[in-house]
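The following block was generated as part of the benchmark described in Methods. Ligand: zinc ion.
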Amino acid sequence: MKGEGKPRTFKNEDKEFEEKIEEEEEDIETTEEEIETTDEVIEATEEEVEQVEQPVEIVQEEKEKMVLPGELIGTSEEFIPKKGTFEEKGNIYATATGYVKTNPKERSISVEPVTNTPPKLAVGDIVIGQVTDLKESVALVEIAGIKGRGERAIVNSEGAAIHVSNVKDAYVKDLSYEFAPFDIVKGRVLDLRNMRLSTVNKELGVMKAYCGNCRTVLKRENDKLKCPNCKRTETRKMSSDYGTGII
Ligand code: ZN
């Protein structure tokens, strides 16, 4: 680099001097760049160390993260959706009750269904389920788990129903103001023959609800639910545990 400047002759010596200084400054910059490169190498080594430790931690997290059908588990920017999931508008949802598995190598996410033997339901059990449909006088619910027996969640559960008279301690004019498909609800088993559930109690009712317009999880605002994305307001027969994740 320095050699290039030499053959050129400058009448103005000051100019030549200035150029030399510039060249020297360039040299310094190069040296700094080299130092930075060396730092990067060190960082990369640290990352590698983390990667070696990670798999053990991930396995532990997966064990704890149980999801229900329809639950948001990630985005398509983060993961490639695999079995037990579906993608909609860039979001990845679970299609099964089970444990979230991620594969950092493939950047994939899947839900491994719970395969334990279903426990027997009893009258008075508090169950967690998902609203699958609304009829004129009943909300149909697919039971996914029993409170206090989370590890033995039900896989192929028969449907249950919440009759309009068992929703809350007040007259229900229209069920669509209380429940909507995809809602996660907590209810008490009233009878096993007809699989009737009740949500008459402040702890019982909707635990998690999705916006009817954009499917974003609704946020509680006093006695209403608001979509943080499209600002739509909805109502539900909410559980006092709405949004807390407490079952
Ligand atoms: Zn919305």
